[in-house]
Amino acid sequence: MSEAPQATAEITSPELNQPLLEIVDLHTYFHSERGVARVVDGVTFDVPRGKTVALVGESGCGKSVTSLSILRLIPSPPGEIVSGAIRFEGRDLATLDAEELRTIRGGDIAMIFQEPATSLNPVFTIGDQLIEAIRLHRDLPLHEAQTEVKQALTAVSLNEPERRMRQYPHELSGGMKQRVMIAMALACRPKLLIADEPTTALDVTIQARVLGLLRHNQAELGMSILLVTHDLGVVAEMADDVVVMYAGKVVERSTAVELFAGPLHPYSRGLLSSVVRIDRPQRRLHAIEGHVPSPTNWPEGCRFKTRCPLAAEKCNAEPPLAEIQPGRFSACWFADQLVGLPPDEELTRS
Amino acid sequence: MIDIADKHAASVADDILLEVRGLTKRFELGREWFSRTPRYIHAVDDVSFRVGRGRTLSLVGESGCGKTTVSRLILRLLPATAGEVIFEGKPVFELPRHELRALRQRMQIVFQDPYSSLNPRMTVGAAVAEPLVVHRQGRGRKLRERVAQLFELVGLDPDAMNRYPHEFSGGQRQRIGIARALVLNPAFIVCDEPTSALDVSVRAQVINLLQDLQRRQKITYLMISHDLGTVRHLSHDVAVMYLGRLVELAPTETLFKRPAHPYTQMLLKAIPVPNPARRHESLNLTEDEIPSPIQLPTGCPFHPRCPLYAQKDKPAVCREQMPALQPVSGNAAQVAACHFVDESVAHFTEPPAS
Ligand SMILES: Nc1ncnc2c1ncn2[C@@H]1O[C@H](COP(=O)(O)OP(=O)(O)OP(=O)(O)O)[C@@H](O)[C@H]1O
Ligand SMILES: Nc1ncnc2c1ncn2[C@@H]1O[C@H](COP(=O)(O)OP(=O)(O)OP(=O)(O)O)[C@@H](O)[C@H]1O
Ligand code: SF4
Ligand SMILES: [Mg+2]
Ligand SMILES: [Mg+2]
């Protein structure tokens, strides 16, 4: 996870100690007549083997574009991966040819898309789509694939899987479609699962079962998970590490336990204190003041400065993502002052 | 900023804006080749409730229990199998076309899936303006101004009006759906998972907005949400559904402090807490198959999963008789459909604060 060059470490550490996925200084831009939208603008983080990394941040900050970039699923034009490396088991996905990439998609790396409606085909039954997905990557006779699909649907708590297989996407509820997507992704036993908001349409009891299933697959098959989610309860439940993004950049990186104990970036602190606490009713909800600036027109220096309670002169220069404590990175000039501060303590400039 | 479009609304006895009576929906499934009788999905079964003007009722329950179907029935986007819906004193299912059209201005919906509810070939500005155009309520510059105002209200840059839905993030599209539902100043809005794609801070902004509008314009909401924190914060009353039926209905604080139905209790216990030190060690994996709305369990639909049923050595009454909604400990404001409701409510202990 270190920012320092890793050239020497690579020789000494055995392959298994290497992260499964390394994203290094990724830049993904969208071009239009309005200008260049620098939507993902220098993102670096690792997903270690068998671990879960949560990617969190404000709506529109570039989480989905980051996850889509990993599999090169950015529509191009107008999108473009401008620079950066995406190393999966040592291979750079950013430079693979189309054929190699196809075998990895849905095979070694599976993706659950944020909106299930966009990835299920309305004219085929659920069963047909799942069977095809399985047989694309695994050489199975039809009846075995059928059995696997049935098991996969049962595993995501879908009732009457055989009948559900004969239904079309529009005949399923929002949460059922989402579970079909999860079943499809897991059926190919990926090494890396990229899950973009996988449980937003699930109630908490089914969600608990689905998260349990993910943990189970992780323990049994050593699967790694990149989990994009707004639900900080789910982050706390699942994540080993957390990457916090704001306006196209990583602003904080930390273990989940340390992050929840006291974030080291003012944006992360604002995020944590905006959680609607079920155990502490409030009259009016806390929200971070103001709105995110536009990606065609980021402010100079720290991109959070327009909304930050600590903003000062210094923030007109861009703060680097620096290691503040061992394994804890923050891109804030004042991160040192935040060490040891409990998460709900309000920030003021001293 | 938004003026009150409410002035000529019919005043209804007790100021009940919406009443739903015995609402039922079955979807026919294809016949099996060996069978003459068609099979059905019992998506919604005999659901009744009322919502007062300016209040919020939340509908919660397991994925697939029929919440979205209830909302589509209320708006007549789907024909009901049985039951009726009374809105501002009028029977919605019997209204002739022209009256339905007028009604549609007063009832709006934020769809659960923002992507499929937006036309991919229409700019988002045009999508938000569409209801105004359809109902001939604005043109030209005024129209643009109104749409720009709504963009700002939901926290989107008005400059983004000329872009297409696919150019937005999930949460941005969700807010476009909310803007579209607000544009006609409706009296009633169904919000089907309106904030599921929003980060907690933007979510707080949207919830504050919905509450401000309610205070100012007496808007009535039917909220459908899996986010129980939001439900507790936003609603006056909560209705809990299980396999198409209402199993509990209560004022919000009562429901969260003293849930009566064993299913409601199960739901509240499963809420994840934003604290990694309080992780659920083994997430619930062992439960067997979830019962289905195609082959409904006999008696109480919850009995195959009910902890109280198991604990009481499987009383026959739970397998044989469908429990009706009944007052909890003699309090008519809280009703639950369980044969042993008083025992059940006494069992519950609130989880400790984190
Ligand atoms: N095809 C596209 N063309 C132009 N801009 C795009 C496109 N796709 C995404 N964007 C822009 O990129 C930014 C980041 O989008 P992204 O979908 O990654 O956000 P996100 O962090 O996943 O947000 P959310 O939590 O709301 O899903 C947004 O401002 C969005 O408008
Ligand atoms: N058009 C349809 N044809 C057939 N069955 C349908 C149709 N629409 C819904 N159903 C079925 O009705 C039941 C209830 O679905 P509904 O969408 O109302 O659930 P929900 O409570 O909104 O769930 P979620 O929380 O997952 O969105 C499900 O079993 C679903 O498969
Ligand atoms: S009626 Fe019986 S099975 Fe149903 S909820 Fe009550 S105790 Fe459980
Ligand atoms: Mg997204
Ligand atoms: Mg639904």
Kindly describe this structure.
- The complex is a heterodimer of chains A (about 350) and B (about 350).
- Chain A is α/β, with parallel strands linked by helices and about 350 residues long.
- Chain A contains 13 helices and twelve strands.
- Chain A has helices at about 5-10, 65-70, 100-105, 115-120, 125-135, 140-155, 160-165, 175-185, 205-220, 230-240, 255-260, 265-275, 335-340; strands at about 20-30, 35-45, 50-55, 80-90, 90, 110, 190-195, 225-230, 240-245, 250-255, 320-325, 330.
- In chain A, the strands form two sheets. Chain A has an eight-stranded mixed sheet with strand order 6-7-8-3-9-10-12-11, with helices on both faces. Chain A has a four-stranded antiparallel sheet with strand order 2-1-4-5.
- In chain A, a hairpin with a 2-residue loop joins strand 4 (about 80-90) and strand 5 (about 90).
- In chain A, helix 6 packs across helix 8.
- Chain B is of the alpha/beta class.
- Chain B contains 13 helices and twelve strands.
- Chain B has helices spanning about 65-75, 95-105, 115, 125-135, 140-155, 170-180, 200-215, 230-235, 250-255, 260-270, 305-310, 315-320, 340-345, and strands at about 15-30, 40-50, 55-60, 80-85, 90, 105-110, 190, 220-225, 235-240, 245-250, 325-330, 330-335.
- Chain B has an eight-stranded mixed sheet, sandwiched between helices. In chain B, strands 2-1-4-5 form a four-stranded antiparallel sheet.
- In chain B, helix 4 (about 125-135) crosses helix 5, helix 4 packs parallel to helix 6 (about 170-180) and helix 5 (about 140-155) packs across helix 6.
- The longest helix of chain B has 18 residues, at about 200-215.
- Chain B is globular and about 70 Å long.
- The two termini of chain B are about 40 Å apart.
- Mean pLDDT of chain B is about 90; it is low at about 1-15.
- Classes of the chains: A alpha/beta (about 350), B alpha/beta (about 350).
- Chains A and B meet through helix 4, helix 8, helix 9, helix 10 and helix 11 of A and helix 3, helix 6, helix 7 and helix 8 of B.
- Bound molecules: adenosine-5'-triphosphate (2 copies), iron/sulfur cluster and magnesium ion (2 copies).
- One adenosine-5'-triphosphate sits at the interface of chains A and B.
